[in-house]
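Below is a filled-in request sheet from our internal design queue. Each sheet records the structural input a requester submitted and the sequence that came back. We keep these sheets so that new team members can see what a complete request looks like end to end.

REQUESTER: design group, bay 2
PRIORITY: normal
MODE: inverse folding
CHAIN LENGTH: 104
BACKBONE (tokenized):
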């Protein structure tokens, strides 16, 4: 199965926010039916993983949220909180639009 979207969430903060954001993203993908989906007659998948530092630390280590990157576009987001997950999934994955207020 081809991988359409791969989301890496920084998990290098002193708090659990990175893990919480990753969990919220996984829940939002399932709720919005975008974990496994079909476009152009092909099946695709969206996958979320935590990772170590993405080297954009000022946007998460010292702030209240986490940094993440979404491939294949390579779009970075910062200060992401679990409450932002549904919007990120709906806009970026579902509609193909960058969420400008969180974009780095
Ligand atoms: S601590 Fe998150 S990008 Fe470095």
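RETURNED SEQUENCE:
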């Amino acid at each position: 199965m081809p991988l359409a979207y791969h989301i890496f969430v920084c998990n290098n903060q002193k708090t659990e926010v990175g893990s919480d954001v990753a969990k919220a993203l996984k829940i939002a993908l399932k709720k919005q039916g975008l974990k496994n989906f079909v476009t152009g007659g092909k099946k695709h998948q969206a996958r979320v993983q935590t990772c170590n530092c993405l080297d954009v630390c000022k946007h998460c280590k010292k702030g209240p949220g986490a940094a993440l990157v979404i491939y294949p576009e390579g779009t970075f987001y910062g200060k992401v909180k679990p409450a932002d997950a549904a919007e990120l999934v709906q806009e970026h994955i579902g509609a193909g639009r960058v969420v400008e207020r969180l974009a780095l």
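SHEET NOTES:
- The CA atoms of residues 6 and 51 lie 12 Å apart.
- The chain has a mean pLDDT of 92.
FILED BY: M.R.
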